[in-house]
Design goal:
This protein is mainly β. The chain has one domain. Helix content is 10%, strand content 39%. It is built from three helices and ten strands, in the order ααβββββαβββββ. Strands 1, 2, 4, 5, 8 and 10 form a six-stranded antiparallel β-sheet that branches.
Length: 211
């Protein structure tokens, strides 16, 4: 299901704002040099038991409250009862059969929780980002309880204030029902308002069963 289909079908009660939807759509056409297609541009592949999957570039995201956290923030673990604005993963810590996801890039974005939308530029004037960059905060990706990728925030590319991006030299495949976790680890607790949030987005190739 594409992002547009999720919005049109109202899988959850909230809808993406037009601006946010346009931003997500930009991720649907990746740079073929930086993020090569895993099957040479072939959009349909066949896996075990002759199950056919459609391969498309799209993001997976999860949004969590920020502030008062001592050890860190975990993403993609508790999707139950949350809207499409907050997360588009519906099984906690794994992807249901036969779906799979080839991760090429991580994005962290700080902002605030609005009404049925995510406002990315909420804390662009805050000292919070400076503190995070100097206090050793980092992003960690774990696959089946094995550390797979980690990077300090101050080593990530910052295309604009409040956003951090890290492209992987080689992609990681999240297989069906394979446990995974993404964490933002912090060296100290930070005080934020009840509206302060951080969104983690994984960009890559998503495999979904053809109905």
């Amino acid at each position: 299901m594409t992002v547009e289909a999720m919005v049109r079908g109202k899988v959850h009660s909230d809808e993406l704002s037009l601006k946010e939807l346009q931003a997500v759509r930009q991720n649907e056409s990746p740079d073929p040099v930086r993020f090569p297609h895993p099957h040479g541009g072939k959009d349909i592949v066949e896996v075990k038991d002759k199950v056919k999957l459609r391969v498309s570039w799209q993001p997976m995201w999860d949004t969590q409250p920020f502030g008062g956290k001592k050890n860190g923030i975990s993403f993609f673990q508790n999707p139950a009862g949350r809207s499409i604005v907050e997360t588009n993963l519906f099984t906690g810590g794994s992807i249901s059969w036969p779906k799979r996801f080839l991760v090429w890039e991580f994005v962290l974005q700080f902002g605030c929780r609005g009404i049925a939308r995510f406002v990315p530029d909420y804390i662009k004037q805050s000292d919070l980002l400076c503190d995070l960059l100097t206090d050793g905060a980092g992003l960690f990706f774990t696959l089946e309880e094995r550390p797979t990728f980690s990077i300090p925030l101050n080593m990530m590319f910052q295309p604009k204030k409040g956003q951090f991006r890290a492209a992987l030299p080689q992609p990681f495949l999240i297989s069906p029902v394979q446990p995974f976790r993404v964490e933002l680890l912090l060296d100290k607790a930070y005080q934020g308002t009840k509206h302060t949030v951080v969104r983690c987005m994984m960009n890559g190739y998503f495999y979904k069963e053809i109905q």
